[in-house]
Amino acid sequence: MKREIECWTMNETKQYEKLDGLPPYGPMYISVTDNDEPYFSEGYVVRFFKSDGSNWVANFRPGWTNYYNIFDYPELKTVIVLAGGHGYIMSPDNEKPKYIFGLTITDVLQMSNGSLVCSDGIGIHFFDNSNGQIWQSERISWDGIIDLEIKDGILFGKAYDPRNSNQEWSDFSLNLLTKKVEGGTWREFINNNHNFGVDKKKKKTWWKIWKRKKE
Known about the structure:
The chain has 215 residues and is mainly β. It contains one helix and 17 strands. Strand 5 (69-73) and strand 6 (78-83) form a beta hairpin. The radius of gyration is 19 Å and the shape is elongated.
């Protein structure tokens, strides 16, 4: 089931329209995918309105979940589309995404300032509306995150551990300012298995992924 919620917006400028399907007439839709390849099946269909008054229809290739939603930022000339768990940061004036993130996002919380907390079941993608950055947390869970809530800039939730039949869900917190994780179920496993998944030849900063350019 596709889930839609009423979204925060900065003003009433219309940047998009969600369509029920591909238009039967008019200009050809534009495929929006993570690899620039055409997508001929019907995906998540959105009409965008350009600043010159024209419009175009995007057909987003979905990810691997049933989470669908759109978050509008008119004053930033940005629309964030979640298509089946796949995140696309779009400008209505451009037919290619500014940035693509996630693939298995299952839940999104929107803060009072418009920032987005996106859970993909193992970690968090955070779009910070105060500075235009999007970053990804370290891995928090084996495979499952529930009961998310935000208090004073800290995200709280529960992470799943299939190895522990006595306590499958454990508390965690993520400071959205410092990006520090406390608790969860993945770090304990890594601490006890120091060489698991380590590639010493490939090390990079994990948190800073994308920053909106000043216009």
